[in-house]
Write a sequence for this structure.
């Protein structure tokens, strides 16, 4: 029996159904509210870009829109859409709202790029169609108004699309140091399609089926994780680019992911925790380190943010250990990685 549970004795001296402790229920409610509050950070994350794009469109400065790589935005959109389906299936309201906000806000940016002719219009039309269908299907699924077969078909489409895009984006990051090629996306996309077909025909062994089931969410997480890697690579090649980074945007990304961390840890969702940790520690704090090294931000700012982050992480681990009646604040992390309960 899990250590977070207590037994309620009956009058006859027997045991009733195990019930959660008060600490567990409190931490459950707190992490849910904190995860939902991350919506604000992610909403503000794209807002400055949307406002700036609007100003450029109204002034006729269409050239400025070409500075925004539509392919990078499209990659992020696909990641949001994949994770939206994952969290909607788990009924995690806070994370579902965050991903929906990401889909809509990125969709607005892509619409602006298409209007400014900074994105091929046929690709935009296809993207908009996928977004509308995806949001509709996820909404219907969340409220149990969608047939399982249709939801399964949508999941297969997201998996194949994600596994096609991810290796292609990873390969393209290092062009021209390596030759340009569509081979990575083609090969992995074909493998994903083959797995999807075999899964629907019940031809996959249990271990392979389990791998395929989690493939979509992990692919989406890796898409997000690759973003800061590409940024770090760009900073390495062109250190002057660091001065063009927005500190506010980095802090919002770090705050949004950091607010999701307690819920990811509490639910023992390794995929969710991995993605949010990466966004907090590398996409956020890691990029701040490079800005501090190149003297874009001062010591007070950097050490202040670092101290707040350390306190937040410590508070998270201590409260999670208390909720699960664990002896050490490190125990929740061990449980998360091993997938087993501590005694």
């Amino acid at each position: 029996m899990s250590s977070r549970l207590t037994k309620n004795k009956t009058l006859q001296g027997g045991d009733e159904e195990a019930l959660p402790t008060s600490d567990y229920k409190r931490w459950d409610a707190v992490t849910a509210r904190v995860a939902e509050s991350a919506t604000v950070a992610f909403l503000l994350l794209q807002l400055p870009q949307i406002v700036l794009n609007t100003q450029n469109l109204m002034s006729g400065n269409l050239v400025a829109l070409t500075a925004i790589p539509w392919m990078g935005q499209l990659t992020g959109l696909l990641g949001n859409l994949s994770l939206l389906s994952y969290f909607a299936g788990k009924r995690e309201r806070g994370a579902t709202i965050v991903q929906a906000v990401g889909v809509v806000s990125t969709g607005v940016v892509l619409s602006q790029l298409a209007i400014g002719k900074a994105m091929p219009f046929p690709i935009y039309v296809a993207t908009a169609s996928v977004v509308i269908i995806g949001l509709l299907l996820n909404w219907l699924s969340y409220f149990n108004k969608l047939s399982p077969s249709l939801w399964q078909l949508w999941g297969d489409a997201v998996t194949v699309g994600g596994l096609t895009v991810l290796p292609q984006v990873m390969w393209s990051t290092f062009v021209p140091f390596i030759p340009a090629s569509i081979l990575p996306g083609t090969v992995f996309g074909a493998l994903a399609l083959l797995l999807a077909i075999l899964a629907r025909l019940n031809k996959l062994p249990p271990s392979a089926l389990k791998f395929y089931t989690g493939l979509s969410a992990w692919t989406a997480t890796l898409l997000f994780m690759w973003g800061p890697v590409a940024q770090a690579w760009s900073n390495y090649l062109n250190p002057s680019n660091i001065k063009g980074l927005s500190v506010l945007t980095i802090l919002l990304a770090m705050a949004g992911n950091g607010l999701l961390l307690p819920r990811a840890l509490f639910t023992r969702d390794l995929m969710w925790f991995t993605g949010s940790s990466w966004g907090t520690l590398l996409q956020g704090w890691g990029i701040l380190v490079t800005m501090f090294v190149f003297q874009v931000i001062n010591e007070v700012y950097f050490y202040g943010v670092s101290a707040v982050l350390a306190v937040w992480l410590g508070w998270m681990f201590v409260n999670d250990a208390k909720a699960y009646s664990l002896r050490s604040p490190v125990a929740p992390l061990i449980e998360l990685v091993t997938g087993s309960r501590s005694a």
Summary: The CA atoms of residues 186 and 287 lie 32 Å apart. The two ends are 10 Å apart (CA to CA). Confidence is low (pLDDT under 50) at residues 1-17. The longest strand covers residues 5-6.
